[in-house]
Amino acid sequence: MNDxxxxxxIHPGMNFLGGAERLTVELALGLANMxxxxxxxxxxxxxxxKMELLKxxxxxxxxxxxxxxxxxxxxxxxxxxxxxxxxxxxxxxTNIVIATKFPASFIAHYAKNKLGVKIVHYFHDAxxxxxxxxxFNFLPLKLRFFYTFISKLYAKExxxxxxDSDAFFANSIFCKKVNSKIYGLDESSITLIYPGINLKxxxxxxxxxxxxxxxxxxxxxxxFIPKGTxxxxxxxxxxxxxxxxxxxxxxxxxxxxxxxxxxxxLAMAKKLGLKNRIHFIPEVFGNDLNALYTCSxxxxxxxxxxxxxxxxLEALACGTPSIISSSSGISEILxxxxxxxxxxxxxxxxxxxxxxxxxxxxxxxxxxxxxxxxKLKEFDIKRFxxxxxxxxxxxxx
Length: 397
Prior knowledge:
397 residues, alpha/beta, Rossmann fold, 2 domains, seven-stranded parallel β-sheet, 16 helices, 13 strands
């Protein structure tokens, strides 16, 4: 018997094509296939996600407020208005509300008071911006002052709303630790549920994707750096490492990022003599992403800190190893040499050494992929969905 008749997932930011959004889609589809009605409440849902979600139109419902909550100044100055609009979209039939990205904590708190539903808070950031003093160092001075002001306005209320939840989930041990400290929770009260990927969506495609086809000379080794222009993903370290191996043949592909981030990376690249060795592309998805993963020698994904990170798993499913940050939650399940090489994200020399190994030692690269691939089977999306379903059933009862 399915006691989970109706789940509502509050995830502002479904307009993005990130790992958290991909996981939300997979969870909604999985729960719907198990007989649960699922409503996703968001700002604007990307059409790519809509196409996936509406494959199950009988059980999945998407509710949007029609305004993009991108984290800009307008968003922060109008939080209460956005919260009220989104809170009104929650169905009275909802059994459990899953709150994820801020300000979902405020919306879920409203639902608990008005509808008497149970609340699950799913931590997938470590930690989120209101409490993240470390991240302030990566912001321009004006924004540091602004976020300090915003934190004074909303941080205490966010803590109170999160603590009012009936259950807490986290996507890594690292995520459990930092969020338990911020929210004053006992670590034992937070259930660890590692994410997974849909292995049917990620598989080798052995051709160069159209988006970079005309930028690749014959037999050019490709180094793929997803979302790599973001300051948080350490482009300075990456460019210094690339500069140290610039006497070798390669092309580094950076995906995503806004114009300012791309210009900053390009300016750094010019100073290091790398202008013609890097190329920027928009965010890629689907077969283009699989093809880019497959045709790359390796992936570089070394954020300053990341609660989990699906990119190394996705790349591994396509047969490609990744260089990751040792401060990433993914390092809890993929040990050094198992699909990944783990480095200190501040150390360009460690990154340079790992790059050389993966560029030129085909045998070692294949060994790393082979070792990791066995581990990958444990992190199929089905395991994540069943664990979530089981935990939600316990809360429902």
